[in-house]
Amino acid sequence: MGVVRRNESISTWEDSDxxxxxxxxxxxxxxxxxxGRDYVDGELTDSSGRMSAKIxxxxxxxxxxxxxxxFVAFKGTVHxxxxxxxxxxxxxxxxxxxxxxxxxxxELLIPSTPEDLDELGRRLEALLPGAIERPALADxxxxxxxxxxxxxxxxxxxxxxxxxxxxxxxxxxxxxAELAVDVCRHYPEIDRDLVLLGVYFHDLGKLRExxxxxxxxxxxxxxxxxxxxIGVEMLRECCAAVDQVSDDLRLHLEHLVVSHHGxxxxxxxxxPSTPEAFVLxxxxxxxxxxxxxxxxxxxEGDLQYDKALGRxxxxxxxDKPEDKAS
Amino acid sequence: MGVVRRNESISTWEDSDxxxxxxxxxxxxxxxxxxGRDYVDGELTDSSGRMSAKIxxxxxxxxxxxxxxxFVAFKGTVHxxxxxxxxxxxxxxxxxxxxxxxxxxxELLIPSTPEDLDELGRRLEALLPGAIERPALADxxxxxxxxxxxxxxxxxxxxxxxxxxxxxxxxxxxxxAELAVDVCRHYPEIDRDLVLLGVYFHDLGKLRExxxxxxxxxxxxxxxxxxxxIGVEMLRECCAAVDQVSDDLRLHLEHLVVSHHGxxxxxxxxxPSTPEAFVLxxxxxxxxxxxxxxxxxxxEGDLQYDKALGRxxxxxxxDKPEDKAS
Amino acid sequence: MGVVRRNESISTWEDSDxxxxxxxxxxxxxxxxxxGRDYVDGELTDSSGRMSAKIxxxxxxxxxxxxxxxFVAFKGTVHxxxxxxxxxxxxxxxxxxxxxxxxxxxELLIPSTPEDLDELGRRLEALLPGAIERPALADxxxxxxxxxxxxxxxxxxxxxxxxxxxxxxxxxxxxxAELAVDVCRHYPEIDRDLVLLGVYFHDLGKLRExxxxxxxxxxxxxxxxxxxxIGVEMLRECCAAVDQVSDDLRLHLEHLVVSHHGxxxxxxxxxPSTPEAFVLxxxxxxxxxxxxxxxxxxxEGDLQYDKALGRxxxxxxxDKPEDKAS
Amino acid sequence: MGVVRRNESISTWEDSDxxxxxxxxxxxxxxxxxxGRDYVDGELTDSSGRMSAKIxxxxxxxxxxxxxxxFVAFKGTVHxxxxxxxxxxxxxxxxxxxxxxxxxxxELLIPSTPEDLDELGRRLEALLPGAIERPALADxxxxxxxxxxxxxxxxxxxxxxxxxxxxxxxxxxxxxAELAVDVCRHYPEIDRDLVLLGVYFHDLGKLRExxxxxxxxxxxxxxxxxxxxIGVEMLRECCAAVDQVSDDLRLHLEHLVVSHHGxxxxxxxxxPSTPEAFVLxxxxxxxxxxxxxxxxxxxEGDLQYDKALGRxxxxxxxDKPEDKAS
Amino acid sequence: MGVVRRNESISTWEDSDxxxxxxxxxxxxxxxxxxGRDYVDGELTDSSGRMSAKIxxxxxxxxxxxxxxxFVAFKGTVHxxxxxxxxxxxxxxxxxxxxxxxxxxxELLIPSTPEDLDELGRRLEALLPGAIERPALADxxxxxxxxxxxxxxxxxxxxxxxxxxxxxxxxxxxxxAELAVDVCRHYPEIDRDLVLLGVYFHDLGKLRExxxxxxxxxxxxxxxxxxxxIGVEMLRECCAAVDQVSDDLRLHLEHLVVSHHGxxxxxxxxxPSTPEAFVLxxxxxxxxxxxxxxxxxxxEGDLQYDKALGRxxxxxxxDKPEDKAS
Amino acid sequence: MGVVRRNESISTWEDSDxxxxxxxxxxxxxxxxxxGRDYVDGELTDSSGRMSAKIxxxxxxxxxxxxxxxFVAFKGTVHxxxxxxxxxxxxxxxxxxxxxxxxxxxELLIPSTPEDLDELGRRLEALLPGAIERPALADxxxxxxxxxxxxxxxxxxxxxxxxxxxxxxxxxxxxxAELAVDVCRHYPEIDRDLVLLGVYFHDLGKLRExxxxxxxxxxxxxxxxxxxxIGVEMLRECCAAVDQVSDDLRLHLEHLVVSHHGxxxxxxxxxPSTPEAFVLxxxxxxxxxxxxxxxxxxxEGDLQYDKALGRxxxxxxxDKPEDKAS
Lengths: 326, 326, 326, 326, 326, 326
Description:
Distance between the termini of chain A: 33 Å
Oligomer: homohexamer
Structural class of chain A: alpha+beta
C-alpha cells in the first residue's frame, strides 16, 4: 500500500511510503536508547509542512555528518506511530552543490508565501513609492528599499501567529498598502501618503527582531528592544539619509510606527493619536487576523480551533452561490 | 457692533447680535429668581449648534405657551456671560404651519448628516440589495427596507460619540457597505454577501434602542435589552417573513449582529467566530472612529482633545502637497 | 483477587475484575499498533463514571459493528496501567431491544441528577406556574412548558462546570425557584413573579445551545449565537403565543434573561438594571457555585482542588454535632 | 404660601416655610462676603434628610456659639435658590438639657434604620445564638454580644453606599441571618452554624473602622488596617475568652471573615475556599445591593441613577396585581 | 491689617496686603464684563506658589503690553474672594534688564528643586561618570553630558505628579544614582555600571517630551512619540558618537530605557528582562513615589489626600524619639 | 565512564555513576508494572538538587521499610532515560543515629540558603533590635525574637518562587533590613524604625502559613487565613506582651504588614498609605525579584526562561571589566 515518492512534498506522504529527496533538518536531538546507543530524534521540514523523523542506532545514517538546520538529502520510510506519521531515516547527508541537478532547491524547502515574490515586488513598487505624492516621502521609500528591500522580500512577518513564513512580511505590507489605498478613497480627510508610509515602516523592525527563515527565532535585539523601537530607529536613519523630510513629517511617521499596536497593553508605548494612526492600526489588525485564519490547520467540518484567540472559528459559507464558489 | 440676524444659523451668532428665527427649544427649566419670580433657563438648538437661552421674568415671552422639545419662533439678543454666549429671549412661541412661508423647516433645526439623504439612499440600494448575489439574501434586504427603510433614513447612529445626528445611521451603513465591498476584493475567501448583510443589520436595533431625532435618548427597551439583542430579533422577523433563508445562513447572520462589538467587555455576548465577523467588527470600528474625529469641536492648532479616548488627537498634515489640500 | 461483576456500576470496578454489562461507548478511536493492525482506544461511560477501554487486535470484539456514542453490551477485564484502571474488551456489540430483559436501561448509563425527575417536575409546577400571581404570566409559563417542558426535563445545564448531567437544567431551575421564593419573602419590594419567570427562562436557551445527553456538546447555534440571545427569542415566541403579556412586562422579562450573567465580561451584553435582575443573578450564582462543589472529584482529606476557580476548597465541618451529621 | 413648621422633619420643608426645631449641624464653614463680613455656609441634618443652611452677617445667629456636629436649636426661613431649597437661619444655639421638654431627641436627628431597634435585637437573638447547634459557638456569640452588642445595635454598616445610618449594621446582620437560615434549608451540605457565625462576625470590624453616627467617617485604624483584619482580631479575642472553640473551627470562622468580599480586588486577601464562604459572600452581596437600591434618591418615573454602579436602574413593576401592590 | 510686601514670596501674601515685585504671569485670559469692557483673568507664579490675579477695566495696567508666560513687574492688593485669595493688579509691565537691580531674578520665579543645583551637579559627576568602571561607558556619560548636561541641569522631571519643577530631572537622576550604588552593594550579581547608565538615560527623553520650565507642557514630539522612544534615540546617538560601546552593551542599555516603566500597560513596550532592568524600574518607582509625597499640599492633621493614588496618605510618625525629630 | 561517588551532592551525579550516601526521599509512589509487581517511582533530594529515582521489583530495596519524607541511606546507579538522569536504587533504608559517623547530616540534605545561618543571625541582631531607636520598639523585636527567633532562623520564605529553602525567610529579612538602612539614609523623612519593624514582621505569618522544611507545603491555616492576617495577629500578641507600644505605633506597624503586597489584587486588603509602607513594599519586591533570578535553573547561553514572569530573562554582562568579574 505504500508507494515510492521521490522529491515529493512532505504534505503528500502517507503511511508506509518510501520517500527520498531533500529537506531542511529543522530539529536534531541526539538521544540514547535503553542500551545506551545513540539515536536521532529530529524533524524534516519543507515548504509544504513538517514531519517527525527518527534515525535509529542501526541506520547507516547514524554516522553521517550533518547538523540542525542543515539542508539534507535523505531516504526513509513513513510509519504511523501513536496516530502520527513519522519517517524512519535510512540515509541522510548534507546537500552538495550538484544536488541542484537532482532537484534540490532551498526555496522549496522552507515555508513560503503562496504569492509570487517578484509579483509582490512589483505590486509594492506601484504603490510604494509609486503612489506617494510628496517627493520627499517617495525618496524616503526609495532609500528604505535600497537599504532593506532585499531582506524585506524574504523575511517572515512573525515567529508564529500570522505570516510566519518566507516572504510573509512583504506579502503583509503589499496587502495592507493595497487595502490602504482603497480605505483612503472612502475618507478624503485621511492623508494617504502618511498611511502608506506607515504601512511600509510599521513592521520593518522585524528584520532585526526575528531571524530570517529558516531560523526565525527572536534575536537578542528583538527580545531586549522589540520591533517597534527598532523600527523607529530604522525610520530615523532613512529620514536622515534622505534629508528633505521635515521634522513634523518625521514625527508623524514615527508616531505611526510607535502606535500601530493600538493599545499600551498590546505593546504600543503611545496610543494612536492621529486619524492616520487609527487607520494603520485597524488595517494591520484586519490583515493579520485574516491571514491568521488561513494558516490554521484544517479541523473537522467547517470548524477550526484558534489557539491564539482561545475559541473555535466557523468557516462555513452556507448556500454559497455556485459561480462564486467555483 | 451687534448686527441683526434673521433666520441665520446659531453658529454664526456673536455678542450683541439681535437674532430672530426658528429653533428647537432643546431644554426648558422653569426657575425662580431671588424675588420668587419665574424665569426660564433653556437652550436653543438648530442643525449648526446650540446656545444657552434665558427668558427673564420681565420678558413678554415668559407668559407664552411652549414646551421642551417644541420648535419655536423667537426673537432675542445675544450676550457674553462668563465667557459664554447666551441669548436673552424677548418673544417666543410655538411654530405654526404658516411659519414655513417665513423659512421654518424642521430639517434645518436638528443636527443632520452633511450628506444628502436621497443620495445616501441611492448608494445604499446600489449595494443593498444591489450587490447581493444570493437571491434569498437580496430578498431579505428588500423585506428589511420595506419595514425599516424610512426610519433607517433619518435615525441617528448613537446618542453621542459617533454619527449622533439625523441620518447618521444611514450614513454609517452606506459608508461601511462601500468600504466592505473594497475590503472583500482584497480577501476573496471572505463571503461578501454575509459581510454586507452584517453591515445592514448590525446597528438596526438602534431604531428601537434610541429615540428618533430630536429626542435621541435611550428608550426603556434600549436600557433593558440593548440594540444587539433587539437587532437579532429584527433580523429573525425579516428572515421569517422572507422564508427562503436557510437556518445555517440565518445563524451566521445572527452571529454577525451578536458579535459586532468584538469583545465581551465591549458588549458582545459572543465574540467574532467567523472571518466575516472579524471584517464586520473592524470596518465598524474604522468608520466609527473616523466619524468621531470629524464630530469633535475644533481646538487650538492641530490638536483636539477627545474625551471618549481620553487623549489629545493631532490633526496636522505636514507639508501636504498643494493640489491635494485644495 | 479480581471478582466477577455483572451489571455493576463502573465506579465499583477494581483491578483484575472481570466485568460484563451495558455501557455508553463515549469515545471510539481506531488506531494502529506497530505491526499495522487496528485496535480501538475508547471509553465506557455509565451514570456512575467512566473508564478507558481498549479493544486489542486479537480481541474478538475488534470485528464487531458499533460506533461512538452507541450503547453497547460488553465483556472485559480490568487492569491497572500507569496508575489508571482500564478495561480490555473481549466482546462488544450494539444493544438490542431484548437486552432490556437483561438489565439494559439507558437511563442508568448516562450521568443524571441524583434527584427524581418526576418529583422535580412536581416541585416545578407548584411554583411555575403554581405560585405566579399575574394570570398572564402563569399562562406564559404554561405555554413555555407546553413547548419545552419535555426537553427541559432531561437537558443538562452545562457542558461542564455545573449541573452537567441529564436533568441538570430542571434541577437547577427548581432549586433556584424554591430559593427565590424564600429570598423574596425577605425583600417585599421585589416582584416575585418577575424573579420566578426569570428563573424559568434564564437558561432556557441552553436547550438549543447544548446538545441533549449523552452528546452534550455545543451546537453550531450555541457557538454562533449563545444561550442568552437564544433564550430571549424563546421568551418572545412564548409571549407572542400567549398574547396577553404587556410590552413593559415582556421587556422586563427579556432584561432578566439578557442580564443574568451579571457583567459584560461574563457574557451579559446588558448588566442587571432592576432589583429583580440582581436577585436572579445572585441566586443563579449561588446555586451554580454550590452544585459545582458537589460535582468535584473527591481528593485527599477535606481538600478538593477546583480547576475552574484555580484554588483548593476545604470541605471540613469541624466538630459537627452528632445529630446533624447523621 | 409658606407655613409655620415646628419640630417637623426636614424632608417636609418647602419653599417659604418658616421652620423651627432641633437638628444636627452637620457642616459649618465660616466664609466672608464681598465686604469682608463673616457668614456661615452650613448644613442641617435630621433623620429624614439634610438641607443647606446659611447664616448671613446680619442674622442674630452669627454671634452664637456652636460648632460643626453640634445638635442645635434653630429658627429660620426656607428659600429656593438655584433650584435647591436652603434655609436662612435667624436663631441658632447649642441644645440644652431642658430642650428635651420641647421635643429634642438626638435619636430623631440622625439617619436611622426604618426598623425598630428593639425588634431587630429580638430577631437577632432568636438566631444568634438562638439557632446555633454547637454549644461552643452559641457561647461564642453570647461572648461577642456581651462585648459588642450595645455598639452593634446602633452602628452604621458603611460610610456610604449601603446601610449608612444608625442601626444599619444590626439591620444588615439580622436580614442576612434570616436569609441564611432559608438558604441553608435548600443546601443541607452547608454547615448552617458556620454561615450564621460568619454573618455575625463578617462586618464586626466596622465598629472600629467607622466612627459611630453622627460622625461616621473612617477612623485611623479603619484607614490603616481595615475592617476585615480588625474583624479577625475581634473574633480571635472572643474565641480566646470562650476557650472551647477548637482551632479548626476558629480557622474556618476566620476564613469566613477574611474572604467575605469574594475577590482579592474587592479587598479579601484570601478568596472564598469553603462552601460556607461562598454562601456568606453571596448573601452579603444580595443584602447590600438591595439595601443600596432602597437608599437611592428618587428620580423621574421608575428610573433611578446609581452612581456606585454607573448605570440607571429601572424600578417599574409592570401590571402588578392589585392585592400585592396594596 | 494688611501690610506692604515688596519682593516677598507669593506664599507669604495674606488678605488685604499691598504687594509689589516680580512674578511669572503664568496665565492671561482676556474677558469681557457685563458692560463689554475687557478685563484680565490671570495668574501670578513664583517659586513659592501661585495666585489668581485680576486686572479690572479701570486698572491702569489694563493697557500695558505683556503676554502669557512673560516675567512681569507688578503692584496690587490681595483680597479674599470665595474663600480664595486673589490679587487685584494696579500696575503691570514686562520686566526690563535693569529690574535685576531691584531684585528681579528669574530663578526665583519658577518652582525649583529645594536642592542646590551646583551641588547636585557635583554629586552627579562623582557617580556619572565617576563611578563607572568600563572606560567606554564612562566616555558615553561624558558624551551625553557634553550634549545634554546643561539642559538636564534645569529640566523638570514631569509635567505633574513628581519632580515637576526646575532641576527636578537632575535631582531625580542624582538621587536614583546614589540609591543605585547602595542597592548594588547588596546584590553583587548586579552589574552596577549598567544600572547607573540606565539611571542616567532612563528619563533623558523628557528633555524633548516636555518643554523647559516655566512652560513645561508636552511638546508635539512628546505627544506623538513619547520619552521612552526618544530616549533610546538619544542613547543611540551618544553611542554612535563614542564609538567604543559594543553592540551587546548598547542593546542592554537600550533595554533599560525601553523597559523602565515596568509593564506594558504603564508604557514600556518591552518589560524588564534583565536583573538590572528590574533594579532600575524599582528604584525609579521608589524615588518617584517618595518625591510625589513631598510635593503634596498639606492637609488636616497627618493626613494628605493623594489624587494620583486615589487614597488618603497618613504622614504621622508616632512617638518619634526627640533626637531624631530635631 | 561512570565513577563511584560516595556522599557526593546529587548535582554532581552523571550518567552511569555508581552512587551511595544519604538523601531525603522527597516522593514515594508505589506503582505496578505490567505483570502486577510493585515498584517505586520516587525522588531523592539533597541541598544541591533532586533526581528521579526508581526501585524496580527485582531490587532488594523493594522490601525495605521507609516512607515519603524519610531521610534514607541508599545505593544505586545513574542512567539517562528520555534525556533525563534517573537513579535505579539497589539498597535503601531509613537512616539510623550512627549514620552520622558515616557522614549523614540532615542539614546537608535539604535545600538551604547559601549564607551561613549564624552569620545571618548576627547580621539580623545588629539591626533588629540593634539599630532601633525607640526603646519600646527594640523591646518589641526582642520579644518577637524570643518567641519566633528559632523558627525564623530555619524557615523557608515561600513554597516556591523565591527563597523557597531552609533559612530563606531569615536571609530575606536580613537582606531587606540592610537594604532598608541604606534606602532610609537617602530619604530622611522616612521613619527608619518603622521600616525596619515592617521588615521584621511583614512575612512572619509564613511561620504558620507554610510548613517548615523539608515539607514546606501550605498549612490549613495558610490556605484559609493567609500569612498577612496571621502576621498581624503575631504582631499584636508581641505588642500586648511588651505593653509599651502606643496604639498609634501599633496601628502603623499593622498597616505595614497588611499593605506590604502593594495592591489589592496582589493580596493586600489595604494598600500602602504611609511613606514607610511604600518603602517596605518596594524593597520587598526588589529582594524577592532578585532572589527569584538566582534560583532559576540555568538555560542556554545567557538566557533563562522565567515561568513566573512568563518571559525570557537575559543574564549577560557584556564586556564586564576583568577585575570585577573575578
